[in-house]
């Protein structure tokens, strides 16, 4: 089957006699000189291959079409193809009936055919298995139109896998996708829609003017989620992770996560919702001390089957939650409890992402997330995507918001099948939900549902949409809600009466009124307690034992140099690795070596390690080599999978060239499994710019907003080596600006041993109340610098030092007139300049290894030892308006006690550094000379 995929049948059965002979001749010519064959026949040969002569039915041989013009058969095949591939453009998908349907594209006349022509063609031309009741080509075409242009429409020609394609087509054309709902299921649908509508209606009337970002017009979104969950629950999935923006979120929280009505109404009434928590313990909600608006909140609910469903907390930045949710999903699928590689089981969890119709094609994070689908380290075995399509973005019409026919079109580039469905058709929506879940379970691939409806109110309930979208809202004002339409349909079918529909509506509304009355009663008991920061977070410097016995390290070091039988690393690399044996004994453990030893001890201690980033396995600067490649056959070997005594998994994945998506994914992974040391490394520190939304809205603030704990580690290569603006600065000032309330650690280490202890300290905090993220301004040139190397004794006996004093300065305290404070690479430049300290009695150099929380007491104690010091100088490589200076200034003034506080570094610049190598060297030499001078 080619990528042009036509139909499930074969056209050859329509040919016999002279026509068959002609086609066979043309096929022979096609094999020799395809340019001499009619283009229509070429297309047929490409789609179906050689004409099949055997098994031609005798009755077919006598049909007019078989004896007549073969072009009629070709035209009929093309018509069927058009219906299958373009029928969606003529489908009844739009509740407001405000879109032109392109029926001409699939009209017989457009292909030069008449009903009589089609009637003479066998139905077997169009189907491998002819549907019941279809007797000829005319009935076949009518049948295809009935399944491809109804309330559900399909786009799947982008799927290249033959089995997958055939399954989708069979489900559609056999009618399996439209399996009829039972009468009880239909009544249950009406009841569900009544609750969904009344929830929104009650809030609208009771809490006038309060924003809720109603989902009305897409009420069947709840039906869709219901059906998906039912299917995967029967498949014994343990976890479902859902991500969505704010529109319709409150209804999802209430009817999918089972947040009780009174608990939801209490949020609007400004009464503590703790008073209404269900006693069964199946609903879980976390809270921060600063809080967030109600339509950003999430929850976790465990259904009676034991399946856990979580709705992720999400800021207003719409689609940015998508990779976070996939990270939580993957973590729920990974077994990290055993040594070696992670055991991945996609049937342990499902991710569901609900997108906005303007956001899906508009925001690049969507494409970043779609690209994860088949990558080894980030696949989740298929995500169900739902576009909550209300046909408008804020106030923006389609012609301003995208360049494609559908908002779903970007997904087709990833061979994701797309199912469009009219949101006003609850039964069709239910059928699509079942189909999508079955597809995901069968093929382990993404699928997208485009739920097409409208938006009953404006962008929010205080917005008047008629100002910018008058024509649309004329239609909306005349359009009945979905519940009304479906209730009428069931009444007309005799399943219920209109009195029943009305009574159900009144009953559900009364139930919500009773819930709100309960809220008003409980308001008197509300103590309005303000949440406080947990005591564990108030601790700036947690005491974590990070020392490791020297014998244990020696054994690990040897095991890291043992390869599998027959494995041969590349010659140069083998020599580099072999030097690690000597380095361990000679106090020359470089950065990558220390890091690997840290990972080994951490997995022995029972904490899994997951490390991702662009080229993370080798290391951007060829410093790491966690995964080795056999020089003869390219096979892989990971030494850390073979460490004796390991009690947890080790994983390192090279990531896609995606920053925001990968950072969000790793953050989500760590949220779901807080025992994992999750690490993301930027290829260069400035690449973190592309993930700024994740730092701003999730990693730095999620604990205070939502009570969500993370221990994610972010490594940001930084340092001025003359590599130009983009490869010098990691923009550490942005992370320091976000630092408050002990929300994370920001470190800029100058020594491999200190980095080793920093990683171990971070691992030791995992899973505790005091855990928090770690930002490491990591080095480039220091990776192999002798002055940044560690000794085995330092690894075995030391701990992480927030402050390190230069041992060759400050040895004559009364002579010290200037105290230099600096961080990271520039401290090595200073150390290299002063060497043994001779001639530099006038100064003392202090390395601030942890910038936030600032180690004020330690620095204060150091300054107090130099009574004659006249000035405290902050030295940095970065321009004055960047780096740590503005952050440090306040701290240094508080510690100065009248001493002069001064800056040494590059002047304020709009760029982060010089672009010319010679200019860089001159600037660097000048700032070092100024810093150490008298």
TrEMBL record:
<comment type="subunit">
    <text>Homodimer. Part of the 2-oxoglutarate dehydrogenase (OGDH) complex composed of E1 (2-oxoglutarate dehydrogenase), E2 (dihydrolipoamide succinyltransferase) and E3 (dihydrolipoamide dehydrogenase); the complex contains multiple copies of the three enzymatic components (E1, E2 and E3).</text>
</comment>
<keyword id="KW-0560">Oxidoreductase</keyword>
<dbReference type="GO" id="GO:0030976">
    <property type="term" value="F:thiamine pyrophosphate binding"/>
</dbReference>
<protein>
    <recommendedName>
        <fullName>2-oxoglutarate dehydrogenase E1 component</fullName>
        <ecNumber>1.2.4.2</ecNumber>
    </recommendedName>
</protein>
<dbReference type="Pfam" id="PF02779">
    <property type="entry name" value="Transket_pyr"/>
</dbReference>
<dbReference type="GO" id="GO:0004591">
    <property type="term" value="F:oxoglutarate dehydrogenase (succinyl-transferring) activity"/>
</dbReference>
<dbReference type="Pfam" id="PF16870">
    <property type="entry name" value="OxoGdeHyase_C"/>
</dbReference>
<dbReference type="InterPro" id="IPR005475">
    <property type="entry name" value="Transketolase-like_Pyr-bd"/>
</dbReference>
<dbReference type="InterPro" id="IPR029061">
    <property type="entry name" value="THDP-binding"/>
</dbReference>
<dbReference type="GO" id="GO:0006099">
    <property type="term" value="P:tricarboxylic acid cycle"/>
</dbReference>
<dbReference type="InterPro" id="IPR001017">
    <property type="entry name" value="DH_E1"/>
</dbReference>
<dbReference type="GO" id="GO:0005829">
    <property type="term" value="C:cytosol"/>
</dbReference>
<dbReference type="GO" id="GO:0045252">
    <property type="term" value="C:oxoglutarate dehydrogenase complex"/>
</dbReference>
<feature type="domain" description="Transketolase-like pyrimidine-binding">
    <location>
        <begin position="589"/>
        <end position="785"/>
    </location>
</feature>
<dbReference type="Pfam" id="PF00676">
    <property type="entry name" value="E1_dh"/>
</dbReference>
<comment type="similarity">
    <text>Belongs to the alpha-ketoglutarate dehydrogenase family.</text>
</comment>
<keyword id="KW-0324">Glycolysis</keyword>
<dbReference type="InterPro" id="IPR023784">
    <property type="entry name" value="2oxoglutarate_DH_E1_bac"/>
</dbReference>
<dbReference type="InterPro" id="IPR042179">
    <property type="entry name" value="KGD_C_sf"/>
</dbReference>
<comment type="function">
    <text>E1 component of the 2-oxoglutarate dehydrogenase (OGDH) complex which catalyzes the decarboxylation of 2-oxoglutarate, the first step in the conversion of 2-oxoglutarate to succinyl-CoA and CO(2).</text>
</comment>
<dbReference type="InterPro" id="IPR031717">
    <property type="entry name" value="ODO-1/KGD_C"/>
</dbReference>
<dbReference type="InterPro" id="IPR011603">
    <property type="entry name" value="2oxoglutarate_DH_E1"/>
</dbReference>
<keyword id="KW-0786">Thiamine pyrophosphate</keyword>
<dbReference type="GO" id="GO:0006096">
    <property type="term" value="P:glycolytic process"/>
</dbReference>
């Amino acid at each position: 089957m080619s990528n042009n995929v036509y139909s499930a049948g074969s056209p050859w059965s329509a040919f016999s006699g002279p026509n068959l002979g002609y086609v066979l001749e043309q096929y022979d010519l096609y094999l020799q000189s395809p340019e001499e064959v009619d283009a229509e026949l070429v297309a047929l040969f490409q789609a179906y291959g050689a004409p099949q002569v055997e098994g031609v039915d005798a009755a077919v041989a006598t049909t007019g079409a078989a004896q007549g013009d073969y072009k009629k058969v070709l035209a009929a095949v093309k018509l069927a193809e058009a219906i299958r591939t373009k029928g969606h453009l003529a489908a009844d998908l739009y509740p407001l009936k405000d879109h032109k349907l392109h029926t001409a594209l699939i009209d017989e006349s457009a292909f030069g055919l008449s009903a009589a022509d089609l009637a003479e063609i066998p139905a077997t031309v169009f189907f491998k298995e002819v549907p019941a009741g279809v007797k000829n080509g005319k009935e076949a075409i009518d049948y295809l139109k009935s399944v491809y242009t109804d309330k559900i429409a399909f786009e799947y020609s982008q799927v290249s896998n033959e089995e997958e394609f055939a399954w989708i087509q069979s489900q559609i054309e056999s009618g399996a996708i439209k399996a009829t709902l039972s009468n009880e299921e239909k009544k249950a649908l009406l009841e569900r829609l009544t609750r969904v509508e009344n929830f929104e209606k009650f809030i609208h009337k009771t809490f006038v003017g309060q924003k809720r970002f109603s989902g009305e017009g897409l009420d069947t979104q709840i039906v869709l989620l219901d059906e998906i969950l039912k299917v995967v629950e029967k498949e014994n999935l343990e976890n479902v992770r859902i991500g969505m923006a704010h529109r319709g979120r409150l209804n999802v929280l209430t009817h999918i996560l089972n947040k009780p009505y009174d608990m939801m109404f209490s949020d609007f009434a400004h009464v503590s919702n703790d008073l209404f928590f269900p006693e069964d313990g199946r609903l879980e909600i976390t809270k921060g001390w600063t809080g967030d608006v109600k339509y950003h909140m999430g929850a976790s609910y465990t259904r009676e089957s034991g399946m856990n469903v979580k709705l992720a907390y999400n800021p207003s930045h719409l689609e940015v939650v998508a990779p976070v949710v996939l990270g939580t999903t993957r973590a729920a699928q990974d077994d990290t409890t055993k040594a070696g590689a992670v055991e991945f089981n996609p049937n342990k969890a499902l991710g569901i992402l609900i997108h906005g119709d303007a956001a899906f094609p508009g925001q690049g994070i969507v494409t970043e997330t779609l690209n994860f689908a088949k990558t080894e380290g980030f696949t989740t075995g298929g995500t169900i995507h739902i576009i909550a399509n209300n046909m408008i973005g804020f106030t923006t019409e389609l012609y301003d918001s995208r360049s494609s026919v559908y908002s779903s079109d970007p997904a087709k580039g990833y061979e994701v099948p797309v199912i469009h469905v009219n949101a006003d058709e609850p039964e069709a929506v239910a059928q699509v939900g079942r189909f999508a879940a079955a597809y995901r379970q069968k093929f382990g691939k993404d699928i997208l549902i485009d739920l097409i409806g409208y938006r009953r109110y404006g962008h929010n309930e205080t917005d008047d949409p008629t100002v910018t979208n008058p024509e649309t809202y004329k239609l909306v004002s005349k359009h009945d809600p979905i519940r009304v339409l479906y209730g009428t349909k069931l009444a007309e079918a005799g399943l219920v009466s209109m009195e029943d529909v009305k009574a159900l509506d009144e009953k559900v509304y009364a139930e919500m009124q009773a819930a709100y009355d309960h809220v008003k009663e409980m308001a008197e008991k509300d103590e309005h307690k303000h949440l406080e920061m947990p005591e564990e977070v108030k601790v700036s410097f947690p005491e974590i034992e990070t020392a490791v016995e020297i014998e244990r390290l020696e054994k690990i070091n040897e095991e890291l140099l043992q390869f599998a039988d027959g494995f041969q690393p590349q010659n140069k690399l083998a020599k580099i690795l072999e030097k690690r044996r000597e380095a361990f004994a000679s106090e020359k453990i470089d950065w990558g070596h220390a890091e690997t030893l840290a990972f080994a001890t951490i997995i022995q201690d029972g904490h899994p390690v997951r490390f991702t980033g662009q080229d993370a396995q080798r290391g951007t600067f060829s410093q790491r080599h966690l995964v080795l490649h056999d020089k003869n056959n390219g096979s892989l070997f990971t030494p850390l999978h073979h460490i004796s005594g390991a009690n947890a998994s080790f994983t390192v994945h090279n990531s896609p060239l995606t920053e925001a998506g990968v950072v969000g994914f790793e953050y989500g992974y760590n949220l779901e499994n807080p025992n994992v040391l999750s690490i993301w490394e930027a290829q260069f520190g400035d690449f973190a710019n592309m993930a700024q939304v994740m730092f701003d809205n999730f990693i730095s603030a999620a604990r205070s907003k939502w009570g969500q704990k993370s221990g994610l580690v972010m490594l940001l290569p930084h340092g001025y080596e003359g590599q130009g603006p983009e490869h010098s600065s990691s923009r550490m000032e942005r992370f320091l600006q976000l630092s408050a309330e002990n929300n994370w650690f920001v470190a800029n280490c100058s020594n491999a041993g200190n980095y080793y202890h920093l990683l171990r300290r971070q691992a030791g905090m995992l899973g505790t109340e005091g855990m928090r993220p770690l930002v490491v301004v990591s080095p480039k040139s220091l990776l192999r610098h002798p002055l940044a190397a560690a000794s085995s004794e330092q690894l075995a006996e030391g701990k992480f030092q927030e402050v390190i004093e230069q041992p060759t300065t400050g040895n004559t305290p009364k002579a010290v007139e200037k105290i230099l404070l600096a961080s990271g690479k520039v401290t090595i430049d200073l150390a290299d300049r002063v060497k043994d300290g001779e001639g530099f009695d006038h100064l003392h150099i202090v390395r601030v290894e942890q910038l936030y929380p600032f180690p004020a007491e330690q620095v204060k104690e150091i300054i107090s030892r130099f009574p004659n010091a006249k000035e405290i100088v902050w030295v940095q490589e970065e321009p004055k308006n960047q780096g740590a200076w503005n952050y440090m200034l306040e701290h240094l003034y508080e510690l100065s006690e009248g001493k002069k506080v001064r800056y040494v570094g590059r002047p304020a610049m709009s760029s982060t550094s010089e672009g010319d190598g010679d200019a860089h060297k001159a600037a660097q030499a000048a700032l070092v000379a100024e810093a150490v001078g008298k």
